[in-house]
Write a structure and sequence with these properties.
148 residues; alpha+beta; Aminopeptidase; seven-stranded mixed beta sheet; 7 strands; globular
């Protein structure tokens, strides 16, 4: 398995993972528009040209926003989500300008919350009716590690 930057040839694989992981998946237009932005940052986990997972987001100034993380159900709970997030943080760049990372997660998604909290994310708020089905989201933050 390889974790690498997202390319145009990965779009259909990312959308396939979206459809099996999320009740309100992104569509081609949303992803294509996001990819055109100069602040867009994305990684995919690929094995034999099959997209197994991805993480998408963007960086503005000293903040990184994780917009979406998905892993195929058959690959979940095997460390792939953690590997994607760890690589995403390294490449986007806790060694430089990024001071904090933000994301939203469904209040009902205990496994994802557990992953994020185990990586040092902490809750800073809640967004009411954030998702299209009316579910609330927790807003989580991760601060850059202190370097001395």
């Amino acid at each position: 398995m390889e974790i690498r930057p997202l390319s145009a040839m990965d779009i259909s694989g990312v959308l396939a993972v979206e459809r099996v992981c999320f009740s309100d998946p992104w569509d081609f237009a949303m992803l294509a528009e996001m990819m055109l932005s100069p602040v867009f940052r994305a990684l995919v986990a690929v094995e034999q040209r099959e997209v197994l997972g991805f993480v998408l987001g963007y960086q503005v100034a000293d903040e990184l926003q994780v917009a979406d993380l998905g892993v195929k159900p058959r690959c979940q709970r095997q460390g792939l989500g953690r590997a994607l997030m760890e690589q995403y943080l390294k490449t986007n760049d806790f060694g430089g300008r990024v001071q904090s990372v933000f994301l939203e997660v469904r209040v009902s998604n205990a496994p994802a919350q557990g992953l994020y909290r185990s990586m040092g994310f902490y809750e800073i708020g809640q967004r009411s009716r954030y998702y299209s089905d009316g579910e609330d989201a927790l807003v989580l933050r991760l601060d850059a590690p202190e370097t001395k």
